């Protein structure tokens, strides 16, 4: 928050747990107010998203909190449906934005047979920040028609991977 303020932004942190003190009607009204007043919604990291929200059973997701996820999904969908601003996410936030738009997640990359001989991802912050650890860094291919290609001018870049989940890329 301090870095955003230092860059000239006026960030507002949306507290978790409002569903415990607001009625469902008040919570919906609060989400509608956010979608009208806040020009950029930035979704941050956190726990795994409950697979039931993208039509699956738990088969690799770690400690999802369904009630929290339902509330956040409501906020994200209200924001998207309001078409009033810009939505972006980091880590869980990126995954949640995808789920809110009908995509599914790979619940556990190491368990997925498509990745058994491929890139290994790490769950450890220490390993992810160790460039000597080949399990934490890998190359990604960037589509030439993407904003990332426009920003970097590169078709391949090296990234660190600290996630055990990923966006599936298929609508449920």
How would you explain this protein's 3D organization?
It is built from 6 helices and 6 strands. By secondary structure, the protein is of the alpha+beta class. Strand 1 (40-43), helix 3 and strand 2 form a beta-alpha-beta unit. Helix 2 packs across helix 3 (66-82). The radius of gyration is 18 Å and the shape is globular. The chain starts with a helix and ends with a strand.
Describe the structure using short key phrases.
6 helices, 6 strands, globular, alpha+beta, two-stranded antiparallel sheet, 172 residues, two-stranded parallel ribbon
Strand order of the largest sheet: 1-2
Give, in order, the helices and strands.
HHEHEHEHEHEE
Can you tell me the residue ranges where pLDDT is under 50 for at least 5 consecutive residues? none
Q: What's the Cα radius of gyration?
A: 18 Å
The number of E-state strands comes to 6
Number of helices: 6
Given helix and strand content, the structural type is: alpha+beta
